[in-house]
Amino acid sequence: MEVSKRRLLAMVVVLMVCNIKEGSATKHIVGGSDGWDESTDYDSWAKTQTFAVGDTLVFKYTPGLHNVAELGSENEYKSCDTSNAANSMSTGNDVVKLDKVGTRYFACGTSGHCSAGMKLKVNVVAADKQSSSSSPTSDSSSSSSSSSPTSSSSTFGVLSGLYFFPLIVSAVLPMFGL
Ligand SMILES: [Cu+2]
Q: pLDDT tier at 172 (50, 70, 90 boundaries)?
């Protein structure tokens, strides 16, 4: 009886973890493989991304060389004024949660770096917008084949979930001493 209760608890935890993953919050590595440095065009990079509420930004750089300061306004962003920065980070692996809709501004506080282009403006949109845009509308044009591509992709999702479920359970159970 005791064991089955624990097992049930473990299952609930696993399901909760799966649900969080279903929400598909995106981790944006700022600058992609280039990371946070002086030679990357962050305007161009930002245009390739959709920033949704719940997503996170990750600034990766060599600590001491750069840092990350969150600026309060468009004017501060334009003039590279980091003197009133609300949130300064310097670990080299700084994570920023995008918790609401709106525009956010970031810059490097190292002298001269922001004016050299080391700054980032991010427009955060509502989370549900992102998930609805991922529907494969282009697939509907391929009417020649009898198999529908949308059902096969959702079947794959279910199958991969079924496949990974025992793996996750076996990974979590030892944590509960089972
Ligand atoms: Cu810098």
A: low
Say whether pLDDT at 149 is over 50. no
The reply to whether 42 and 101 lie within a common domain is yes
Give the integer Cα–Cα distance in Å for 72 and 75. Answer: 8
- Co-location of 43 and 122 in the same domain: yes
Separation of CA 116 and ligand 1 centre (Å): 9
Distance from Cα 89 to the centre of ligand 1, integer Å: 12
Please state the pTM of the whole predicted model.
0.62
pLDDT confidence band for 31 (50 / 70 / 90): very high
Give the Å distance between the CA of 81 and the centre of ligand 1. 14
For residue 106, being part of any structural domain is answered with yes
Provide the residue range defining the domain that includes 3.
1-20+162-178
Q: How far is the CA of 173 from the centre of ligand 1 (A)?
A: 44
Q: Higher confidence at residue 157 or residue 74?
A: 74
Q: How far is the CA of 109 from the centre of ligand 1 (A)?
A: 7
